[in-house]
């Protein structure tokens, strides 16, 4: 499913609730005698102001808290980009275990939101809930956004034509849930459900839609198979992740457009030297049937082909890959370097290597919670495309 990025060019400021100061009890006062014991107790510890509390909060935010059932934190701040203009973004992250034993892996949840002066509004929730002894898991992603968007049409040729750039207003809701059971140590399988609703208006070049409906509802049922040996889902240091998802959009559950969708992901993670992790990602999407314009495979976003405007290049099929080096530098700071490539095409018979789009970039990492990073990425693409991305957790 697609995710919109939170773009930023400023470092973020933390948001945290004030910590109450513990009151000290006074000794009982004798009604007829005044003694030193009856004087109010003096707290030798100096009171902290709000700035000291925020600093203390961030200094301790990444320390492991084994006694805490739910380790949760919030961070946010202003940002600016040529796409979304001036805005305020907030990202929250939490990790927890449904059973505190040596077998059950950590679950995670992230809540994110953004509002900008261009009219972009976003709220989303995503995570992975791991049940005791890893027997079951639920992977979920939900977001709602409205955005004055750009549109170039369908296919590589349209996306590559700068003159096709047009605008429209977009309101969209996306829900994806995978209900999975463990078949083997690292092997999971189960049912996928999904819902997508989009309402588009005020197209400046409506002919680029080829007569398709401006409002589309798509509901899906499918199956998912996952092999996941990653040591920690939000920021893996070792392991392999393979996901195959097959979705169907039949008329019986309310679809006007009848089509199917296949999604494949392969990720691997390896330690190279001290503090260095090499991460590899291969992702593909294949659509068959009468696919509506908003459900086509789109290139770009906050996780893959970073720096490209999400949806500028769209078609029935997509193949993309990236290789990223993540290096810890000092204390809670790190950097990331990546290279990648992607291609959108209508069918395998029309695949052309010369239409492959390049991607590369650099990123900064700051450990907000234990092994949960805030990332600030700057990606580059073809025809001078580039962009800042601010988000929680690694791109993949």
Give the averaged pLDDT, no decimals. 85
Count of structural domains: 1
Using only C-alpha atoms, the radius of gyration works out to 24 Å
Largest sheet: 17 strands, antiparallel
Order of helices and strands: EHEEEEEHEEEEEEEEEEEEE
Question: In whole angstroms, how far apart are the ends?
Answer: 14 Å
Q: Beta fraction of the residues?
A: over 45%
Name of the CATH superfamily: membrane protein fhac: a member of the omp85/tpsb transporter family
Apparent shape:
globular
CATH 2nd-level architecture: Beta Barrel
- Quick one: CATH class? Mainly Beta
Return the CATH topology: Porin
Structure explained in plain terms:
- By secondary structure, the protein is mainly beta.
- It has a single domain (46-392), classed as Porin, CATH 2.40.160.
- It has two helices and 19 strands.
- It has a 17-stranded antiparallel beta sheet, with no helix packed on it. It has a two-stranded antiparallel sheet with strand order 13-14.
- A hairpin with a 2-residue loop joins β15 (317-330) and β16.
- It is globular.
- Residues 1-41 have low confidence and may be disordered.
In short:
By secondary structure, the protein is mostly beta strands. The chain contains two helices and 19 strands.
Keywords:
single chain; 396 residues; mainly beta; Porin; 17-stranded antiparallel beta sheet; two-stranded antiparallel ribbon; 2 helices; 52% strand
